[in-house]
Amino acid sequence: MAAIKPHLAEDGQTTPTQAAYWNCAPASAEEGLAAARQGLCPTPKEVIEQSHAGLLQVAWTRQPLVQQMMQGMVIDVIKDGNKYKLRGTFPDDPEKIVEGAAWNPFAATDASILSWTSKMGAPSFSLPAGGTPVGGSCLGSIAGQSTSTEGQREQQAKTLLPILYGPRYKNQKIDLAKCICESCYAEGGQYANSSVQYFQLMRFAWAQGALKQQTASGRSVFVEVMIDAIDNADYKLGEEPKQWKRRGKIMRFFRLHDSGDFFSKPYFDAWKEITDWFHPTYGGPNGKGHPNPVWFWAPTRMWISKGWVDHISKRNRPRRGHDQNFSVRPSAYHVNEHGPLGASGKGKLGTGWAAATVVFGSKEKMTAEGKGRGKAFDWDCRAYAVEDGPTCRGAQSNPAGGGKGKPGCRNCWMLQKERTNYTWHD
Q1: pTM of the entire predicted model
Q2: CA distance 148 to 129
């Protein structure tokens, strides 16, 4: 899923209105309204209007790309050495190429299957962010974005709210102005460019089709291609300040969905098959452990219904006596709030889930005792404290993970019982 601005944003991506809103951080709705009336703080309406314009910009950029792609485009997988690309062609018009809108010009080229996240220092698989109403892959964002209709938001909230707050807080509501998805970083900045949107739409369309195609091995085309692409990706291991190891094997790290989310249960199951292949003790071609294991981290909001919670919990349940190399972390829905059901890190959603990620918008709020549910997180991400950052590789590591507080943090992948906070950055 697209994370939120604190994860990967560059300086200046937070708008002045949003910065002022979070900096005000009123203790209550009444105080916030009083401050707004005095002109001291922006109103929630002003925040929503501004962020809504940014979300619409991405929707408008996508629309002409999708319309062109639907006119008979065929997507082929091209292998160039050890790298994979996607190429879109129009058999009835070989000279035709997809072009961006006039306000965001772009002439289509091949789309690499994997991308690289500089902050994470890891390869990634990136899909279009946002809810289905705007052509995105994030089903869990529908209740939290102003580009969804009020009816669509209310319908999803009915299944989301009981999991978010629990039965004791059944009268809570979705606060759109404070929704993390409303300020999604993957629908702004460089992500709003036609080229990035086209590449993500290509991967999205290819993934949906490739899941339905089987190879001679019995795997889907999606799983077959992704296993080879991930195995041959450049992890730039020489730039890791610390070589993390498990059972004597050097660990590689993959960031799943720097943009986008699990859009269907078969798609999640495919990723479980992929991550199992790279497991250090039962993965690989002989089932006795992959020689070059990979650890995967996927933040997600697909805890939005009991069906999804149970599916991920069952499918991703760790095998007894084995490390878990697939960290599926439930992402909080609002700024300055706990993850779903408090996400205590003790299996609240089930054994297949890691602990939550949260976003607290000010130092004053970071250790807040939210609504009687106790401390909100265990580890505060240090990536933005790096002088030449932000970067996980240069960030102080969580001492709980054996890093002794030295540079080279991989908390989100490895310490799956540690709830992590990404402080809002203006």
Answers
A1: 0.88
A2: 13
